[in-house]
Amino acid sequence: MKLYTYFRSSAAYRVRIALALKGIAYDAAPVHLLRNGGEQLGDAYRAINPAGLVPALEVDGNVIGQSLAIIEYLEETYPQPPLLPATPMQRARVRALALTVAADTHPLGNLRVLKHLTGPLGVTEEVKLGWQQHWLRTGLSALESLLADDSRTGCYSHGDTPTLADCCLVPQVFGAQRFGIDMAPYPAIMRIHAACAELPAFQQAHPSQQPDAE
């Protein structure tokens, strides 16, 4: 099993957390998103993942793209410990929390979106940062409400064991802090983030612990 990854990629970070929580061994294949114009855009990597995005997981000659699809595959093939809860309604809630990050928030600050803003659209670095911070705050505010106002939230995003939702929450906090977001308005998120940070799996998956960390 080989994971094409980049240490600062939030999407790759999600998958690394899931792999670590499940205790799955893998080979890391770093793909530098900035070097030489972005290694993910080169022919060699596009032959592996035509979308030109990380992560991608290669298993027995097959390649899976998209972080949530990869984690769902891991859940089906390595069911213990589970990252999705037992009932359909509980699973729906966890997936909704995860998608609040992975679909509604993260894509608007993705590298290729930001490069389009400063490239073809010609916005300044200051405007670009304002764009990032606006959508980060919008997404974090929604996630905070979903977590703080629901009795199903426990020590973690759903109950008292880590789930798919936490695999998404922790990297999003890392990205928000990296881009200067004040996290004080999001106490439920930060409480969960602190609980996750105590677990070896989350520590192992952190960007600073990756072989390509700078």
From TrEMBL:
GO terms for molecular function: glutathione transferase activity; maleylacetoacetate isomerase activity. Gene3D superfamilies: 1.20.1050.10, Glutaredoxin. The keyword Isomerase applies. Signal peptide: none annotated. Its EC number is 5.2.1.2. Residues 1-82 form the GST N-terminal domain. One of its GO terms (biological process) is L-phenylalanine catabolic process. This is Maleylacetoacetate isomerase. It comes from Duganella lactea. The lineage of its organism: Bacteria, Pseudomonadati, Pseudomonadota, Betaproteobacteria, Burkholderiales.
